[in-house]
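To the wet lab folks,

You asked to see what we're planning to order before we commit. Fair enough. Below is the target structure as tokens, and below that is the sequence we designed to fit it. If anything looks off to you, flag it before the synthesis order goes out.
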């Protein structure tokens, strides 16, 4: 009974304190009293203070304490009360890295009419490290964001715009697409008649069949030099959809060995995709011009290294060409300079930090290795036609 009274008293104290905070008037009065005491500590003011009945201080450390004590006390008192009452704000310092455990609210609506895959599946039936959905219940746009898993999308009808790093794609019917962990990814402009399927899986999901480090070797569309999106024939699409439906059947029926069965169906799906990839000659560099291939590799390297490598010469060295040749090829094919591409990727990072974190403009500037906030403001305004602060207000 006594414990209940103590807890009730603490709770009431927390609620009252969190609602009102420290009193500005009491702080002002306290500071005035301290100023009087400081005057009394001066030898010329001793007699006056004694006449007024005020205490006399003679040690310098005491004078310093009188200035600080109220600020320190009230600051930590207020923070402590907020902490006790659960009202301490949590600072979002970094761009969220979405895992399967926290990604669903980002790409799905709450109520879904379809029972396909994980659309409305009870969590008790989930297979670890893997998820399967149809586009029914997909939100209107996704990202830009980073995720820690692989993604496979199959567009059956309609169209979708997708951006992976600096590369922009228009997904049309019979398109299959692949993204890998840690890429900056975005989907929008989803047409009303769009329909398809998509799978999300962690690197560990296929570990028994194929280690994650060998995925790009076995399936080149996951690799740096591969083509991440391509169209299939009608027959190839139907075979892919058949495997997707087999996965759904295993998920819904919850038969023994369903996780292994889904792993095998996923591997077969990747194999079918690779056969289509090879049939179209996408694994052969001769199907695209040397310039297009160079620019594609440059884009993907920038998407990986843009925070640590800011010079065109850095990427020229990675690609084994001269900086002048790289600049020339990028300019001919894209109409932009190689430096423009690096700046665009950096601007994407800045937008993610502005949108998803509570970092101040100055903190973001220094995090992105700008010499000062003014330089960052000029860079961002040239890229986004808005100041960082105004852009943040428009997108939060």
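Sequence we intend to order:
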């Amino acid at each position: 009974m006594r414990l209940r009274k103590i807890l009730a008293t603490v709770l009431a104290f927390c609620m009252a304190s969190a609602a009102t905070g420290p009193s500005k008037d009491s702080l002002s009065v306290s500071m005035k009293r301290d100023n009087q005491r400081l005057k009394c500590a001066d030898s010329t003011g001793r007699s006056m203070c004694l006449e007024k009945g005020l205490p006399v201080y003679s040690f310098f450390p005491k004078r310093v304490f009188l200035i600080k004590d109220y600020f320190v006390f009230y600051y930590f008192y207020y923070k402590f009360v907020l902490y006790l009452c659960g009202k301490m704000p949590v600072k979002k310092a970094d761009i969220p890295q979405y895992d399967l455990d926290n990604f669903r609210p980002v790409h799905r609506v709450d109520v879904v009419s379809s029972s396909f895959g994980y659309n409305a599946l009870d969590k008790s039936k989930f297979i670890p490290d893997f998820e399967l959905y149809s586009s029914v219940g997909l939100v209107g746009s996704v990202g830009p964001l980073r995720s820690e898993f692989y993604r496979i999308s199959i567009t059956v009808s309609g169209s979708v715009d997708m951006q992976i790093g600096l590369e922009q794609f228009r997904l049309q019917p019979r398109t299959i697409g692949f993204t890998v962990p840690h890429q900056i990814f975005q989907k929008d402009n989803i047409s009303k008649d769009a329909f398809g399927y998509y799978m999300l899986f962690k690197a560990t999901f296929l570990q028994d069949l194929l280690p994650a480090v060998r995925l790009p070797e076995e399936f080149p569309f996951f690799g740096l030099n591969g083509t991440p999106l391509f169209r299939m024939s009608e027959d190839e699409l139907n075979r892919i959809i058949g495997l997707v439906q087999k996965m759904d059947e295993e998920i819904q029926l919850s038969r023994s060995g369903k996780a292994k069965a889904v792993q095998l169906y996923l591997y077969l799906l990747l194999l079918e995709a690779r056969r289509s990839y090879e049939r179209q000659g996408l694994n052969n560099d001769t199907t695209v011009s040397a310039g297009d291939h160079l620019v594609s590799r440059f884009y993907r390297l920038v998407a990986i290294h843009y925070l640590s490598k800011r010079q065109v010469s850095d990427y020229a060295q990675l690609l084994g060409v001269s900086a002048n040749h790289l600049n020339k090829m990028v300019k001919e094919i894209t109409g932009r300079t190689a430096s423009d591409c690096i700046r665009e990727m950096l601007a994407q990072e800045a937008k993610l930090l502005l949108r998803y974190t509570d970092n101040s403009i100055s903190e973001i500037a220094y995090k992105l290795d700008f010499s000062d906030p003014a330089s960052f403001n000029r860079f961002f305004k040239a890229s986004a036609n808005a100041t960082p602060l105004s852009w943040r207000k428009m997108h939060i």
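Structural context that might help your review: The radius of gyration is 30 Å. The CA atoms of residues 175 and 231 lie 4 Å apart.

Thanks,
Computational group
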